[in-house]
Amino acid sequence: MCAIAGYFGGNFSGETGASYLRLMLDHLNHRGPDGNGILINGDVGLAHARLSIVGLADGAQPMVSTDGNLSISYNGEVFNYVELRQELNRKGHNLRSSSDTEVLLASFGDKGLNCLADLNGDFAFAIHDRSRQRLILARDRMGVRPLFYTQCNGAVFFASEVQALLALPGVSHELDPIALDQTFTLWCPISPRTAYAAIKEVPPGHVMVLEAGMQRVDAWWKAEFPDRSDLAIDASPEDQLEELEALLMDAIRLRLRADVPVGAYLSGGLDSSLLSALAAKIHGHELRTYSLRFDSVEHDEGRWQEMMAQSIGSHHVSVTSSHDQIRDDLPRVMRLIRQPILRTAPVPLQGLARSVRDDGMKVVLTGEGADEIFAGYDLFREAKVRRFCGRQPSSTRRPRLFQRLYSYLPGVQQQTPEYLARFFGVGSEDLQDPLYSHRPRFKSTASAKLFFSSELRGILGNYDAAEELASQLPEDFRRWHPLNQAQYLETRYLLPGYILSAQGDRPMMANAVEGRFPFLDHRVVEFASRLHPDRKLKGLREKHILKDVARRHIPGGIIDRPKQPYRAPDAASFAKPKGSDYLRTVLSPEKLKASAFFNPAAVGKLVDKAMQGEIASFRDNSAFIGILSTQILAVGTSDSLSNSKNGTDLNHVR
Fold this sequence. Notes:
654 residues, Asn_synth_AEB
């Protein structure tokens, strides 16, 4: 796990190229504090900041192949490098190091881009082929590791984090109004767009090929599901249970490979508890686990964390996040993640990663991905109930299912069937709408756009982020089962665009901690995609097959507890008497007018509500954090919205 940077083209002198590389590394050293290096070969420059985990003594980068033709800068891990090394040795390759970097480089030399299908890992890499004068940028299937690029001074520059590119002279810091609208609808920009007009990302599962006069981006892996007409429960439940358990065990075994100790995040929920339990069995000695707690009873899961830590006998460390810490650390975290957010959730996770690093650890297993691939979110269950009610919109019994679904919400329990039907939009939406499952979320989130300024509204015009999303769906999408459609929307967009980035990679790597995600092993993902939907969501029982596996390994109390999604205090962190010095600054009428994204008068009233502790609704919470996080990024930049058309092709996106 490291950071990479570099450039292609530009016809720079070696001295100029080296200065650009060093400048980018200066903004990436938190990801790789164990060493760095640069390599310049004609019009191509590669840079690397290293966090040494595999091949501690001989894995320095950039690395050059034995024949001198290929060179690589690589971020991430190829977990099956041992097996790939054995295959390469059988073919006569003479590998010099113990690192997975050389295995990846040799595999590329052996098979070219076809080697990507052999890799079980999380990675972003740049490989320069000198003989073909070609640079390859590639990103892992699920988008665990980041890779951004921009065009500047006649060259394409790339880096693991946005701030390394923003440091380059001539790169605009202008926020993209289209990306902002997408975030205030979908929670994140639609890849390859980022929060910055001048910067793009290589999408998950894609490769970017750069040659003289040519630049293309192609998918090398795609999430796929069977057609609805092909769904059948062929294998026995017990056989599928055994297969899933074996896949998870192997995914964890591979991700425990390292030349440094590996720990685990333990939230107290099903996913992290199962991973920790399986890891403890494979580990062979005491596992170190780490948990995040909150002063707020509403958000704290300490009871369940302690239960699991005692169950598996781990050495357990917990860190408590307070309202004050969330308030004070938000600006620093925003400078790391470099995208507007609608929730403060990334802030406590940065503190958790810091505690891992303070404990002397560099690597942790974590449970992201299970909710997406095994249908764990309330969104999946709600869509199923909405469809069921929509088939008989006059029914007074079916809407009662929403009370069962949201048993923990007193307000829902007190409502009439007629009110529940209206509130959840029963009968008001097209059941064939490809975005049917997500329309309530998009509508609820987009309500925060009431705070947009007239200037921003004028630039956006009739632009619709949800419709752009719908226009990018795969050709086969409409043939999939509705649950699989909803899962695709989560795994393709929100998972890499927000959860693995703003909540995952950036908070962890700010502290030089590598996260590993066994549920995102491509074999597990592909197994889950083939399952009949009833094996994932049986009735209203989410993660059905995963719970059956878990019952073999963890206490029933963890499995059967009410689901509590990870959340952190939002606007409440800014209520008096806490206050904050920067809040009134970045949300002052002057700063709001300068950025021109939001209505100063409306925001002023929202800030007053926040400071009085009167924000309770989803809309106002998400609006407040969204506006505040956007302004933190915008304040201090020289570019204003009035110049945004220079960096945004509005004719293309409308």
